[in-house]
Write a structure and sequence with these properties.
Trp Operon Repressor, Chain A, two-stranded antiparallel ribbon, 30% helix
């Protein structure tokens, strides 16, 4: 899988690529990442990438011409060209227009172009899993007040936000999306099951097991993860739950499911609406709610 990042701060990502799981994924060739410096697609001595907004207002807007040239350099045609009939006139676009039959500079399927934007749909684990099915994803990092909307209309397939807050630019958001997505690619994690048994993970029934004995983990099914403990068994006057030390996998599994439900009800009750809940889960939730009322 290949990610391409369009940014005015390419050096932002240097340390990000050199550490942790992502650096190992890059070394193994499981993930490829390219960074395009938007300023390299300007033609004035000041390398201008922004201008004042039409209609007035605060801030600056990223100009369309450098972005269009960056897309042309990647072999990405405007969406409207792909949809145009063969005999339709080609519109003039600054920076040139690549062959609309070519999906990218490698001749593969047209990359999926994502604009990092506070106005986009919220990024979730489900979207991360969806992105892993794509060969090539381009992340456009906005700055200032954003990008000229015509670029969004011409080139971007969707807008994605990582939360209900505003960042100085899309670079942090792009890094978050890459990290969350690449760790779901087979082979990236040392143990691929790690991505199944965690917050927002798969439903328990969807997780295959080959163990001869009962599994002590419980799939989240869209809920938050359960709490984790390690050695020592006692720390700061607090003991790890006895159930985790007794070796009974079924008891541990039940305890962990209850903790998933407790945490989700306390911190993200909205997740319960779409979660994969069993009859037993609903009984546990009813008991937890009854506790709170006492």
């Amino acid at each position: 899988m290949r990610f391409e990042i369009v940014t005015i701060f390419p050096e932002f990502f240097t340390g990000f690529f050199e550490n942790g799981i992502l650096s190992r994924a890059l070394a193994k060739g499981l993930v490829e990442i390219g960074v395009r410096d938007l300023r390299s697609f300007t033609h004035d001595r000041h390398r201008t990438v922004d201008d004042r907004p039409f209609g007035g207002g605060e801030g600056m807007v990223l100009k369309p011409e450098p972005l269009a040239e960056a897309f042309a350099a990647m072999g990405i045609a405007p969406k409207l060209l792909i949809a145009l009939p063969d005999n339709a006139p080609t519109p003039e676009i600054e920076g040139g227009v690549p062959d609309s039959s070519a999906g990218s500079e490698t001749g593969a399927i047209r990359p999926h172009v994502v604009l990092m934007s506070a106005q986009g749909r919220p990024f979730t684990q489900a979207i991360a899993r969806e992105l892993t099915t794509r060969e090539h994803v381009v992340l456009v990092c906005g700055r200032y007040e954003g990008i000229d909307e015509r670029i969004n209309e011409l080139y971007c397939d969707e807008e994605i936000s990582i939360g209900d807050y505003v960042l100085s630019g899309g670079e942090l958001a792009a890094a978050v999306m890459i990290d969350a997505t690449m760790r779901l690619i087979p082979g990236v994690l040392g143990n691929q099951a790690s991505s199944e048994f965690e917050s927002f993970g798969a439903a328990d029934a969807e997780i295959a097991t080959t163990d001869a004995f009962p599994r002590s983990q419980h799939g989240a099914g869209g809920l938050l993860d359960y709490p984790h403990y390690t050695r020592p068994a006692e720390f700061g006057g607090l003991k790890a739950p006895e159930v985790l030390l007794n070796g009974d996998h079924l008891q541990i599994r039940r305890w962990r499911r209850e903790q998933q439900l407790r945490k989700t009800l306390a911190y993200r009750p909205d997740l319960l609406e779409d979660a994969a809940l069993s009859k037993e889960d609903r009984k546990i939730l009813s008991a937890i709610r009854a506790e709170k009322q006492d």
